[in-house]
What we know:
By secondary structure, the chain is α/β, with parallel strands linked by helices. 47% of the residues lie in helices and 13% in strands. The chain starts with a helix and ends with a strand.
Amino acid sequence: MLLRPAYLGLTNTFAMLRLLPMNDRDKDIEILVLRHQIAVLQRQLGDTRVQFSPIDRALFAALLHRLPRQILHRLHLLVRPDTILRWHRDLLRRHHARMSRPKRPGRPRTIRSIRVLVLRLAKENPSWGYRRIHGELLVLGIKIAASTVWQILTDAGIHPAPERASSTWAQFLRSQAEVLLACDFLETVTLTSARMYVLVVIEHAHRRIRILGATAHPTATWVTQAVRNLVMDLEDAHCQARFLIRDRDGKFPQLFDNILADAGIEVVLSGIQMPRMNSIVERWIQTCRHELLDRTLIWNQRHLVHALREYERFYNSHQPHQGIANARPLQPLPEPITNPAQITRLDVRRRSRLGGNLNEYYYAA
């Protein structure tokens, strides 16, 4: 593309040099011959328009733009004089646009080590969306925007939000989150077709999960003992809970509410067929199924309790939560990395739990 303008300029220079030794009479004859050739060409083409390449237009505009309009109208050209002038204006506009274009448009490119780490997290955790990956980066002290993670995944041809629902759940009593608890039963089935019931409690403010136990027979005695253990744990942790939200499941005996009332915790019943009133714990149950139970073959009750305890430690100590600004229930976010040399050389290791179903990432010592 760049050789053609140089070639045309060189050939026209030699053509001009060839005209220097010619007298005016010879030049006039050549002009008349060229005008006649143009007339013959126009007669043969008829209504067909001559197509000029951008290089041809630039050459015509450069040679003819200095001539006055009156002289241009007298010339025998294949195009109108106004077209020549328009070509010259377009040539100047493109030149100014090219000179005004910034040398480094937009924001600087994300550091390669961060892009590699984002793609690694997406590859090792196919169910993670871009916000989950963004939260994991914040846990590692890498502060970038969630939109940057989305762009990195999109550029690599990876869906930024796999298996994600488009709707969100409403926050119940947001202003009272510091004193709110929520509980519910989680049901699952082992390989021997035995149905197991898991009683879980979650803190609204910090998203800390407490698994009170698992059993095949959630009797009133078992549930009562579980809530007694919960009250003692809350007292040891100096938790200031004042309300507990639960559904109207018949597995909760009246003694369950009485024990909580003696501890200063009022039970709030959710509406009939209104799971959104207890959306925090319902969301955790969905997350537990998606990240653990749907990917693990549970053999028996002992195996279920072991898996749930491992997931409880992972959930409370490592996994970031969007509801609390991507912090962890038991650990705050570390300070962002500001040293460019440290960001350039990221030595991030993986710690697998439960056979690789859960992955934790940390810096090598």
